Amino acid sequence: MNLIELSRDSTVMVMSKSGNSKGTGFLISDEHVITCFHVVAALSVQGNNVNWSLYNDIEIALPSGEVLNGSVISVPNQQDPTPLTQDFAIVKLKSKPTKRYQTVELISDKKQLNVGDESVFSGYPLATPGMVTHRGMISGFDASGSLIFVQASINKGNSGGALLNEQGAVIGIISMRE
User: What is the pLDDT of residues 51-94, one digit of tens each?
Assistant: First the structure.
């Protein structure tokens, strides 16, 4: 399977009617999806505190159109706020899809990323009636190396999409644009 097909076949739409939220996610197994935490939770800032509340009606639309319910299993807490601070969520599907889809693997920490490397991501940007796929280029990193800057068209609704390297491994999660 080529990189574009892998990106599209592993990408899902993540929705919550109660939260009026729509974003993107990607399959890492038959029953697990990764997306952004801000797609599956209401966030508010009061002073130095970030308060959040998970949406209780998470739906995952698969590439075929099949819609399954899901629940967030990576909940931040005092001991481990990582899902909130790194803006990711793992959603477990409440039932298995009727069809098998491609899944993607997270890159190992040993892989070196370089400015100029090509990347691909798919998603459901708002106001677009379907999935779109983009090629991009890694254009830089923040000082800590935890943020990857990508030269590509990223819009609201792309949040939660898998940023894939040329080998088809997940090197990041689309979470914001500037």
Answer: 899 999 999 999 999 999 999 999 998 888 889 888 999 999 99
Q: Using one digit for the tens of pLDDT, what is the confidence trace for 106-121?
A: 987 656 789 999 999 9
Nearest to 88 by CA among 79, 78, 77, 75: 75
With a CB cutoff of 8 Å and minimum separation 6, the contacts of 51 are 43, 44, 45
Contact 12, 124 (CB under 8 A): no
Within 13 Å and on the Cβ side, how many CA atoms surround 110? 0
- The tokens of 164 are what? 């894939």
User: Pairing state of beta strands 67-72 and 89-93?
Assistant: antiparallel
Q: List all residues 6 or more positions away from 65 whose beta carbon is below 8 Å from its beta carbon.
A: none
